Every structure is written in structure tokens, then in C-alpha cells.
Amino acid sequence: MGHDICPTCCATKRLGEIRCTPDCRYLSSGREHPAAVVRRQQEADIARLIVSMGRPLTEAQLQLFFLIASVIVRHRPDGI
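^ that's the sequence the OP posted. Answer follows.
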């Protein structure tokens, strides 16, 4: 604690391998911007998808994939 770390380590290891102090301005900023978490998850999903398919997807295919995935995730069946 109390040491400087590189931005990459801060972004990827905080609250896991690196213990942040409650007054860490980067930690509070990261909590205010959860879009970065979503983007990292999307990038990980893309990487798994590409490996499983054996060839890269076009940008249009990726956009369509995430559109369909977001509809599926938000779907709430009647009665639930």
C-alpha cells in the first residue's frame, strides 16, 4: 500500500491482487464507470468466440452478435 503502480496493473488487478485504500481516487473512478468492465467482458467473449470458430468475425458480425446477446440477456419470460 502507498506505492505507485502502472495503469495496467491498477485497471486489471485492483481489489483482486492489489489492495486499494478506501480513498484511492482511481478505485472510486473505476466504480463510477462500469462500462470498462462491460467492455473487458466483451473483449474476453470475442476472444473465446474467435478461438472456437477458428476464424475472426467481421465488425458487422460482432455488432450483430452483441445485439442478439444483449436481447437474450435482457429477456424476461412471462410469469417470472
